[in-house]
Design a protein that fits this description.
This protein has helices spanning 30-44, 104-120, 137-146, 175-181, 197-202, 213-217, and strands spanning 2-7, 13-19, 124-127, 154-158, 162-163, 171-172, 187-191, 205-209. It is built from 6 helices and 8 strands. It is elongated and about 90 Å long. The strands form 2 sheets. A 6-stranded mixed sheet has the order 2-1-3-8-4-7. It has a two-stranded antiparallel sheet with strand order 5-6. By secondary structure, it is an alpha/beta fold. It is 27% helix and 16% strand. The protein has 2 domains: 2-45 and 99-220, Ribosomal Protein L4, Chain: A (3-Layer(aba) Sandwich), CATH 3.40.1370; 46-97, no CATH class. A hairpin with a 5-residue loop joins β1 and β2.
């Protein structure tokens, strides 16, 4: 049975969370995981780069110099690609309908497999439930340093929802925590419901808030009861 260590904001270990071995049996073929990650990157592209061919360049149609008598090669017009400001040969053009479809079962299996991989490598940590009264960048930086993952890329995961009490409706939960992470390099925040495989593969460690732990483990098939 795997164990996730639990810490408070000072970096002191306060307990642990047991993960059932049955949840760690999830596997995904490396090729399907790669295809999923490539699809995410492809779908994030705008595909809006555009260049003009020589037919679209607005230049004079007059020949640059007489075709004969000068001893030079013949030239058609200044829109030719060999001239500065001329058309581009085989340049990028806007593409349409380039969405890469991701199979839902393959996506779920890939995300779960990446989580299992991090659990087995002891790269997932639990931050116990605490409310930050104000943004404290130094407090979060100290926390990462105390649990010895400070310089590495870290993704902090929280639960989804909106904070109404004391904040305007629609603002994310743990707003002060999010603000505390903004000025720390290579530290990101995401909600569990929006977690994707690329964010998982990119980070070296995961810090899961205790309030989001059940939602996080449900990705592996754990019951919230």
């Amino acid at each position: 049975m795997a164990t996730l260590k639990k810490y408070d904001l000072t970096g002191k270990e306060t307990g642990s969370v047991q993960v059932n071995d049955a949840l760690l049996e999830i596997k995904a073929h490396p090729q399907s995981v790669k295809d999923y990650l490539v699809a995410i990157r492809n779908n994030a592209r705008q595909w809006s780069a555009s260049t003009k061919t020589r037919a679209e360049i607005n230049r004079t149609g007059k020949k640059p110099h007489p075709q004969k008598g000068g001893g030079r090669s013949r030239q058609g017009d200044l829109a030719a690609p060999q001239y500065k400001g001329g058309g581009i040969v085989f340049g990028p053009r806007p593409k349409f309908d380039i969405h890469t479809r991701i199979n839902k079962k393959e996506r779920r299996a890939a995300v779960a497999a990446l989580i299992v991989e991090k659990i087995k490598a002891n790269r997932i940590h639990v931050l116990q439930k605490e409310t930050m009264k104000a943004p404290k960048t130094k407090e979060m930086a100290t926390f990462f340093h105390k649990i010895e993952i400070g310089p590495q890329r870290i993704l902090v995961l929280g639960e989804s929802g909106s904070e109404v009490k004391g904040e305007k409706a629609g603002k994310p939960i743990h707003l002060n925590l999010i603000k505390s992470l903004r000025n720390i390099p290579k530290k990101d925040y995401a909600v569990v419901s929006q977690l994707n495989g690329y964010a998982l593969a990119r980070c070296q460690h995961l810090v899961v808030l205790e309030t989001a732990l059940d939602q996080f483990l449900s990705i592996l098939g754990a019951s919230n009861e």
